[in-house]
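Typical record was shown:
=====
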Amino acid sequence: MNNVLISGGAGFIGSNLALALINKGYDVTVLDNLSKQIHGEDPQKSSLYLSIIDKVKFIEGDVRDVDKWDEALQGQDIVIHLAAETGTGQSMYQIEKYVAVNSVGTGIMLDLIANKYKNHIKKMVVASSRAIYGEGKYKNAHGEVFYPGSRNVEDMDKGEFEIIDTATGAPAILMATDEGSKIHPSSVYGITKQNQEQLVLTVGASLNIPAVAFRYQNVYGPGQSLSNPYTGILSIFSTLIKNKKPINIFEDGKESRDFVYIDDVIEATILGIEHDEANYQVYNVGSGVSTDVLTVANVLREGYNSTIDINISSNYRLGDIRHNFADLTKIERELGFEPKFDFENGISRFVNWVNLQEVQESKYDQSVKEMKEKGLYK
C-alpha cells in the first residue's frame, strides 16, 4: 500500500499531507484543479503548488471530469479524498457548484472504484467537516442533552445570539460534540460534506474497502490561503490587518470555534491511514478547545503589532452556527491521537509565517457585498 492519490492535494491540507507522506516513503499522486480562489490569479506560482510539484505526480483536473479521475486512480492503493468547495457562506448561493463538486464529484470517484478499481484500492479516506453537526451539543439546567436547530432570525435581529435553555431562559450549557451527536447541517456546504462522508463509508462497506472519515474542525497554519475571503477567519482577519483595514466582528464576538493546527491534522490523518482500527470509522479532528472570535481578532492584532479597529457589529450570516468544538475521546482512545499545538503556540507560528508573506489584496468587502445581494448578510 505505497501508492497514494490525494484529490485536492495542492490545497492547504492536501499539500501538507502529501509532503508528510512522501517523507514516510509513499509515492503520491495529486489530482487538483488549482482553483484561483485558493491559489491566486497565477496558480502555478502559488507556494502550495510549488511545494509539491517536483515531488508528486501531478494531474491538473476537475473532480467532475470522469477521465481525470480514471487517469488518477490507475495504480493507486490508497485514495484520500480532500477535494471540495469549502466556503460555508458562499455555498448558500453557489448551490449547484457545491453540490456538483462535492457530492457529484465524489460519486464519480466511487463509481469508477466500484466498476473498475475495486480490486486495486485498499483504503479510502475522506475529509468530512464539523459543519455536518450544524449547531453544537448542549444541555439544559436539568442535565438533558439537546441539539438545537438553526437560530431564529427575529432573535438575532434583536442581538440575541446565544442558544437558550427554554426551561430557564438562560444560555444553554455548551458541550463538546462527539461523533454520536446529531447530524443536522445548517448550510449547503455542510450538507455536501455529509454526502461525501456517507457516500465513501457506505460504498466502502459494500465493496469491502476500508474507509475512514475525518470530521475536521477549523484548520489553520502556515501555508493557508491569505487571499480567499470565503473561508478561514484567521486568514481573513490577517489580510485585513495587513491592509490596515478594520475588522468587522459578526454577532457579539462571543461565537466560538475549535481551531486545530495543520500539523495536528496531518498527524491524525496519517494515523487513520496506517491503523486498521480506523477502518469504517468516523473521527473528530480538532483541538478540543473552544475559542471565541473576538479573542482571535485581538490575538492577531497584538501579534501583528497593529492598532486597527475591531468593531463588533451585530451583523450575522444566515447558515452560521453559534458554537462547536470537538470531543476527541474516540480518536484518542482508538488511534492514540492527542493534539500537540495549543491555540497560543499555533497562532504564534501562523503569525510568524504571515509576517514573511507578501501582503495580499483583501477581497473581504466583495464577499460581504455578494452575501448582502443574496439576502444572506443581515
About this structure: The first helix runs from residue 12 to 23. The radius of gyration is 20 Å. The chain has a mean pLDDT of 95.
